[in-house]
Amino acid sequence: MLTTTTSPPRGLVVSLRPAEEAYDYEHFRDRLADPSVLAGAVAVRVFRAPLLAVPIGGSRRGGYMSFDVLALAMAARGLLADQAGFPNLRLRWAPHPDTCHTIEWGDPAPEWWEDDAVFGRFYGYSESAITSFVRERPQTPSSATSTPCSPTAS
Question: With contact defined as beta carbons under 8 Å apart, do 124 and 59 qualify?
Fold first, then answer.
């Protein structure tokens, strides 16, 4: 039988702080369709690095945070469980050693094959933020129609 604990290993501290202390607070504030959802946000501080956990609300239907250490993900999930706006908290173990564990909340995310605009709307980003992201993001070989995929093709 697998036994887990919600306390991270000794020396690893996870805490909640005011949202405005998060390193990425402005990033979200500037890109969300409804920045008022940040009133319920919190900073999850790990190793003195606070990152924003944005609750669901308005057009935002779900959220997630990534962690490289499972115990940290479990501790953060435990802290968010007591916060309004983070329903249906779940832990997703990394499928591969070189990927991160995630905690997710709200509705299940769209399927991986959906385009970036679908994800952007699901996570409550503004149309201008979605357009900017899609325009700046390199195309994948399967989505490129007029540009050769091979770096050696002319």
Answer: yes
At a CB cut-off of 8 Å and minimum separation 6, what does 61 contact? Answer: 106, 107, 122, 123, 124
User: What pLDDT digit, counting tens, does each position of 63-98 carry?
Assistant: 999 999 899 999 999 999 999 999 999 999 888 878
Nearest alpha carbon to residue 93 among 77, 111, 116, 113:
77
Tell me the three state secondary structure of residue 131: helix
Which residues, at least 6 apart from 110, have a Cβ–Cβ distance to it below 8 Å?
Answer: 118, 119, 122
Tokens 């979605």 belong to 130
Instruction: Tell me the two tokens of residue 74.
Output: 């479990």
Dihedral sign of CA atoms 58, 34, 72, 82 in order: negative
DSSP state at residue 56: P
**Cα radius of gyration (the chain):** 18
